[in-house]
Specification:
The chain has 12 helices and 8 strands. Helix 4 crosses helix 5. With about 280 residues, it is of the alpha/beta class.
């Protein structure tokens, strides 16, 4: 779900011999009773580690990254994961938590033979990426997040109110619903899943700046200048994380990936190519 009222206007380990499939056909990792879907694109290089993509809340790999994945896969080995309940990955009768989502992600990387990655997370995927960097610091070399918050007050008040009032059958959810129904193992589960995710997102516990300060990865914080996340909050995140950078994309909302994919790709490549800061 892309915060559409905001998105559309007004509103160091070396790279090893990673396993590369013959195509980008989906694969599954069995993690704690859940079969988690993932895709691998591109080819291994002698450069940086693989690039992990983490989708937005209620979204899929395709709906989040279709405009940017081909460009990234031309330069990197890319692994993209669909979290519990999202896309090809079935939902379970257990609550969402960022700790579990991060641990699930780390387990998929382990099964895929990827000891360390660079990571780009959009929206809710950015929050999963932040938690992954906090709970599994050796897994993440560089982390890039777009439109992510670490406290509930980091969201625009109007965004919170819209989310609280929205229903899975509303037109603003239509694109997310179509993407879900196209690939989900149980398309009829959409409304249950979407409201479960919405309620989780707007009630998730806050994180402290001290928690963010523990992140060892080199971090790029990205945000649209008319995002559903407040600019001041993104700046606070940038200040809390050592050696972090901030990029504000002008004339964009929450869906920076869809609105200016060429900018996002360029910024990601520039950040990935930059030298790592000296260890603290």
């Amino acid at each position: 779900m892309k915060f559409r009222p905001f998105a559309l206007g007004l509103l160091l380990l070396p790279l090893c011999a990673w396993p590369v499939p013959a195509s980008a056909a989906g694969q599954y990792a069995d993690v704690d009773g859940l079969r988690i879907y993932y895709e691998v694109h591109g080819a291994a290089t002698a450069g940086p580690p693989p690039l992990l993509l983490l989708h937005g809340g209620s979204e899929t790999i395709d709906t989040s990254f279709s405009k940017i994945l081909p460009a990234l896969a031309s330069n990197h080995l890319v692994i993209a994961i669909e979290q519990q309940g999202h896309g090809h990955t079935a939902d379970l009768d257990r609550p969402f938590s960022y700790e579990r989502l991060a641990d699930d992600t780390a387990a998929v990387l382990e099964q895929a033979g990827m000891r360390q990655v660079d990571c780009f997370g959009w929206s809710d995927g950015g929050k999963v990426g932040l938690m992954l960097a906090m709970r599994h610091p050796d897994r993440v070399r560089k982390l890039m997040v777009s439109g992510a918050n670490f406290r509930q007050d980091g969201l625009q008040p109007a965004a919170i109110q819209w989310l609280k009032k929205s229903k899975a059958s509303d037109p603003d959810w239509a694109e997310s619903r179509l993407g879900y129904e196209k690939v989900a193992p149980d398309p009829a589960h959409w409304e249950v899943f979407a409201m479960k995710w919405r309620d989780f997102y707007i009630s998730a516990p806050d994180w402290s700046t001290a928690q963010l300060g523990s992140i060892r990865a080199h971090v790029l914080v990205m945000i649209g200048d008319n995002d559903g996340v407040r600019l001041e909050h993104a700046q606070e995140m940038r200040r809390a994380i050592p050696n972090a950078r901030l990029a504000v994309l002008p004339g964009t909302g929450h869906s920076t990936l869809l609105q200016r994919s060429e900018w996002v790709a360029s910024m990601l490549e520039d950040f990935l190519a930059a030298p790592m800061p000296k260890p603290r």
